[in-house]
Amino acid sequence: MDTTTGLNQELRFMLLEQYGLKKVIAHPDVSEDDLMIILSHTTEPEEKALTVSRLQTINSEHIRVGIAEYTKAKHVNGLGAARARAQFKYVLQKRCVYASSIEQAAIQNVLSD
């Protein structure tokens, strides 16, 4: 991590902390990047647990939507559909790392068909 990125993350964490970390975590529009910053900078176990839970919820939602979109684009022909399938596959594989074992099995099942 370079100095600029570290400084940006520190400043972002200070802003989030000033707003209220629990309020930020509970906000429906919080970004994954903000949650990752909170997770890496906070020392409170309760805030870490809330952040991890929120990240898992967001990841599960993205996996569910990604599987549905990949399934829709699976049997469509054309260059655009092929690119869409490749993008959905990439996103699902990337999110598979943080998924539960059930979600990982669902992703592998959809991608292997």
TrEMBL record:
Domain of life per record: Bacteria
Protein name as it appears in the record: Uncharacterized protein
Species the sequence originates in: Enterococcus dongliensis
